[in-house]
Amino acid sequence: MLYDDIQEAVAYIRSRTDFQARYGIILGTGLGKLTEEIEVEQDIPYRGIPHFPESTVRSHRSRLYLGFFHGLPVAALAGRFHYYEGYSMQQVTFPVRVLRMLGVERLVISNAAGSVNPDIRPGHLVFVRDHINLHAENPLRGRNDERLGPRFPDMLRAYDRRLNARALEVAAAHGIPAHEGVYLGLQGPNLETPAEYRMAHILGADLVGMSTIPEVIAACHMDLPVFVVSVATNACYPIEAIQPTTVEEVIQVAQAAEPRMRLVVREVLKMAADA
């Protein structure tokens, strides 16, 4: 059962370290180098953790880092999983559940996404305030285990708007172009067609991506507050602005934005710790 698998993974990590993290960070595209700012107490490859998959995506290192990020105790997942890699939604969200069972109190998620809002340009940061879930599967599908969370978790406050407000303040103080926005999730791995980008814009999305939403759903299921920061890597609206996009170009834009993302995450977590 899922609960037993989670406990087995937690037990393995606990056998390697007694470090207690308060904050979890999923280092998606754009935050990979944040580990350079962590005073690492323990570094565990995913392949050693029971029931953990390994990321097949370039730039995802498939390691769990536990240590202090500017004095704050964190557990950082260097590499995430996607449904398009062939994993089930339970596998995609398994690390989130493990972090919660390890005692993590708040989760920070980063990602790279296409912008369907003409005011959000490549390199801009977006703090997600809501989402539209168009994934083909849901991580809560199947028999519910009340030890993990309720059958019908409420999603009204899935995203921490108070931390978003702080992030916007930090961004403004440092001259960083930033917005709040709505993230629309699709299965991938192909990028969207012009008609699909138009659809996302009409539906009220600001960003389109292939991750994050399953992790947010699992976090809400386990009553784990979430802060999500995206970097817009390519313009997808208006339609005439769309250019052919490669993964190398996406990574390049995300890496250029990474110092700004790290600064915001640092200040947001400091605020969370002081609350």
Name the descriptors.
275 residues; alpha/beta; Rossmann fold; 5-stranded mixed barrel; 6 helices; 32% helix
CATH superfamily: Nucleoside phosphorylase domain
Strand order across the biggest sheet?
5-8-7-6-9
Any idea how many domains? 1
Element order: H for helix, E for strand? HEEEEHEEHEHEHEH
What CATH architecture would you give? 3-Layer(aba) Sandwich
CATH class: Alpha Beta
Count of individual beta strands: 9
Shape: globular
Structural class by SSE content? alpha/beta
Strand content: 15-25%
Main sheet record: 5 strands, mixed, barrel
Number of helices: 6
Proportion in helices: 25-40%
Mean pLDDT: 93
Low-confidence segments, given as residue ranges, are none
Distance between the termini: 36 Å
- Estimated radius of gyration: 18 Å
- Quote the CATH topology: Rossmann fold
